[in-house]
Amino acid sequence: MLNFNVPPVKNSTGEPVWKVLIYDRFGQDIISPLLSVKELRDMGITLHLLLHSDRDAIPDVPAVYFVMPTEENIDRMCQDLRNQLYESYYLNFISAISRSKLEDIANAAIGANAVTQVAKVFDQYLNFITLEDDMFVLCNQNKELVSYRAINRPDITDTEMETIMDTIVDSLFCFFVTLGAIPIIRCSRGTAAEMVAVKLDKKLRENLRDARNSLFTGDTLGAGQFSFQRPLLVLVDRNIDLATPLHHTWTYQALVHDVLDFHLNRVNLEESTGMESSPAGARPKKKNKKSYDLTASDKFWQKHKG
């Protein structure tokens, strides 16, 4: 994207093309964990500015936009076109832009006589925030919009619930488009997870139905789309905590229960016979068993069990 949507040529010693990056708060959140200011500069980004800040015209520099296709953002971009702020415009949308909003941009470009300056328009499908190589979150600027509390509020309306579900589904869809794979979806029934699963399934199927415009075929992705190794997407409510049972409970009491012969508050231990080995051919020594009652009177147990 920062290289005008062309794969960067390796081992090229030429100077990068200097350009301006314009993002909204969503775009800022997506880029900041991935690229430092120095890395942006190495890619030719001399300035990175928020879309709704006061920006001066730089008429001889191309601008890369990375924004959500919201009403206010589209209006501001149309305003930039009318004000002739930059030499050329590379418009990248975090989520898919609707046809009506594309027409708004086209009308503004025609009105401003700037059609030739709009170089590229891309749907990037990047509506998720990558924190590590294998961890991402859907949480964005409005933290309260997508949260456990928001879904479980007693006073939530149907339209609000619908908005939350659509936001989650859009982000997950973007993630799988980026991954280039169609998941096998599993969820628990009768929960918000099922609502997300149904909507995501519908969105994936609609996309696959139109073979010419499908995001999961073509040369843009690796050979992954025809692979039988489909990822498994497990959608569960935050009430269902899958991780904790897999961890050892980190208390002395639980450890004794798991590792030693612990039954009805009594531990049976085999005493170790020390380092001396039995002479060859002799019967091995019988191991002595010791029992400990782990009751309230055992001070060591009381102190360390929790």
From TrEMBL:
Pfam families: Sec1 (PF00995). This is SCFD1 protein. It comes from the Eukaryota. Residues 273-306 are annotated as: Disordered. InterPro entries: Sec-1-like_dom1, Sec1-like, Sec1-like_dom2, Sec1-like_sf. PANTHER family: VESICLE PROTEIN SORTING-ASSOCIATED (PTHR11679). Belongs to the STXBP/unc-18/SEC1 family. The keyword Magnesium does not apply. Keywords: Protein transport, Transport. One of its GO terms (biological process) is vesicle-mediated transport.
